[in-house]
Write a structure and sequence with these properties.
Elements lengths: L1 E10 L2 E12 L4 E5 L4 H4 L1 H11 L8 E7 L11 H11 L12 E3 L2 E2 L5 E2 L4 H10 L4 E4 L1 H7 L6 E4 L3 H8 L31 H13 L3 E4 L6 H6 L10 H14 L14 E2 L7 H5 E2 L4 E2 L1 H4 L4 E5 L6 H5 L2 H6 L1 E6 L2 E6 L3 E6 L18 H8 L4 H5 L3 E4 L5 H5 L7 H23 L19 H7 L4 H14 L3 H18 L6 H9 L3 H5 L1
Parallel strand pairs: 3-4, 5-8, 8-9, 10-17, 10-18, 11-14, 14-17
Antiparallel strand pairs: 1-2, 2-4, 6-7, 12-13, 15-16
Amino acid sequence: MLSAVFCAGISGIDGYIVTAECSATGAIPCFELVGLPDTAVRESKERIRAAIENSGLRFPELALTLNLAPADRKKEGSAYDLAMLIAILHAGGVIKRETVFSDKCFTGELSLSGQIRAVRGVLSMCAAARDAGLTEFYTSPDNAAEAAVVEGMTVYAVEDVGALVRHLNGEAALEPFIPEPESGAPVDTGLDFADVKGQERVKRALEIAAAGGHNILLIGPPGTGKSMLAKRLPSILPPLSFEESLETTKIHSISGTLPAGSGLVTVRPFRSPHHTMSAPSLVGGGKNPMPGEISLAHNGVLFLDELPEFAKSVTDSLRQPLEDRRVTITRANGRVTYPSSFQLVCAMNPCRCGYYGHPTHPCSCSEGDIHKYLSKISGPLLDRIDIQVEVPSLSYNELSGTETAEPSAVIRERVVKARERAEARIAEYRDHPDGDMPAGGIRCNADLTPRLIRRFCRPDDAAAKILEGAFRRMGLSARAYDRILRVARTIADLDGAENIGAAHVAEAVQLRSLDRKYW
């Protein structure tokens, strides 16, 4: 007897359909598993046998050959357990032969007791099942909310093997999973710019960075609030769109960082890795390539605190993802591409002791030590950071003041309006006969291509003169020139201005001048 049951695998952040084919004959009982299984898949034979027997069912004493098709793709992980078990029980007659599997997909890991456990990447798997024309998806209760995000699929939360077999045999039907409705209210993380005393110029720089999606570097002595300010940047970013939430959830599901029982990710990610991390931990890697921190920060913020303390090979690995908004990882087992459209926020001291240039606290570093410390940050990486701002020490009056600072909600309203102006401008151009857009799309002003910069970032005569003087005086690169225009375009959007004026360019140049002071 032959049985075929659908399940799904993962490649990058996308799923693909896998067919668990089981052939059962009356020869000497054995169990052969083929289809390029890895160790976790090969070990499923023991989990399946124990799960069937401990569920009070009969394991078919037949010659079983189980193939995972397509057989030329490596199968990894435990997500195929449930589908293989159903295929065996169907081929062995435990599940009725008339049961139809052409519209069903099964995903889940088996415990020895027969319970169904959660696996990674269920959102991508369920989407692949829908795209393949399937309509029913069976998975663990911990994965049901995640799978239910996919429209057009009926999701069943399966507690154990026994309940599923009774459902397929028509003895006791399972109820489809119904997710709890989203509240729609913004999530309060407890981090608000109202908590930050002073630092109005830095807050302004962060507002510009949020409005245009620009990378930003904060530099200043210890204790001035660099980390405090950076951690509050997500509180003024626009809310995630449904498409952004979907893509972000896929990445976190595949990485195993999605909490059990959760559905869509609705808050922009904020990743703050330690400076001892390796390059593969940042960009992704491993024997079976997995997303790194830059992909986990997709559609959110990647915060690198104490930037010079990171290995130079680690920080330099950011250069290509910052430009391409994706990273391709190649290993012996294959090649995968993960999205990495993140906003880079860096913080650092001006020297190892932290007090170089401080007005009152003397610096204990020699000139050689300062140069060595700052040289850990390469010029090409610095060139990709649009905004560079000093975070000075606060005076006693600023710290002891009782005035309430502007809350994040108010700043966020201005940021959202600026983003809407930029999106409307891009949408109008997209409908233009010459409106060819890059493959990755444009999400904000920081993504503007050279052609779009020439179209949307034209300074007036006074602004052009300021920009020309800055270019000659500061020795700007072509990339820095483009990035100043992008920042000026964002400042103009915050002001509600159609054209880039002298004040917009002047502020953008000021936000780009620290690399000439320190480097």
